[in-house]
Every structure is written in structure tokens, then in C-alpha cells.
Design brief:
This is Bacterial transcriptional activator domain-containing protein. Helices cover about 70% and strands about 0% of the residues.
Length: about 120
């Protein structure tokens, strides 16, 4: 999957263009989410699509929850900590912290690794 990182009219710095850029950005994310739903039976592809969306929306905690759940279903419990660390780094840039919900989810899914 190719990642989308293009910026609409990058050489222009017009105020009205920001709304258009954001609209296009959201359309791309929406299209990628639609693609992801086609991969529900293919966890590897779903994870790759989630990661591509994360690159476009790096502080979306709901997205990280989906990534963590998918990693757990794939048996990649060790990757959960890496994903959580990535979220923490992205949120640090905004002087924010991960919610207790995602921290609890990560703990719960990691502990399932040892119950199997």
C-alpha cells in the first residue's frame, strides 16, 4: 500500500486553502478506513492499512486502540508496547497523555498473552 503524504497546492499559502487541505485529508482517511473494512478477514492487511492511516492521523487514540486490538489478535503482544510508546511520543508533542482507557486496554491484551 502506498502512503498518501501529498499536500494540496503545497506552493500556495492562502488561508482559504487550509479548509480544502483538511477536507482532502479527511477524505483520504475515510477512503483508507473503507479499504480497511474490506480487510476484516485479513488481519495482516488490516494492520498495514491501520498503520498507513496512523501515519496520516498520528494522534488519533481510537486508531491506536484498533491497532493494539489487531496486534493482539495476530499474537503480536510485544508490539503493543511499541504502539503505545508511539502514541505517547505523538501526544507529547501536544503536551497530552494517553487516556486511562487505552492504557488499560494495552495491559489487558498483554496479559492475555500469558493466559494462553
Amino acid at each position: 500500500m502506498r502512503d498518501y503524504h501529498a499536500k494540496l497546492a503545497p506552493d500556495l499559502d492562502e488561508a482559504w486553502l487550509e479548509a480544502e487541505r483538511e477536507h482532502l485529508h479527511q477524505q483520504v482517511i475515510g477512503a483508507m478506513r473503507a479499504l480497511m473494512s474490506c480487510h476484516d478477514e485479513y488481519e495482516e492487511r488490516k494492520l498495514a492499512t491501520l498503520d498507513a492511516i496512523r501515519a496520516l492521523d498520528p494522534t488519533n487514540e481510537a486508531l491506536y486502540r484498533e491497532i493494539i486490538r489487531t496486534q493482539a489478535r495476530l499474537g503480536r503482544h510485544d508490539a503493543i508496547d511499541d504502539t503505545l510508546d508511539l502514541l505517547k511520543r505523538e501526544l507529547d508533542k501536544l503536551d497530552e497523555r494517553p487516556s486511562s482507557e487505552i492504557l488499560q486496554l494495552a495491559r489487558s491484551l498483554r496479559s492475555q498473552q500469558y493466559e494462553r
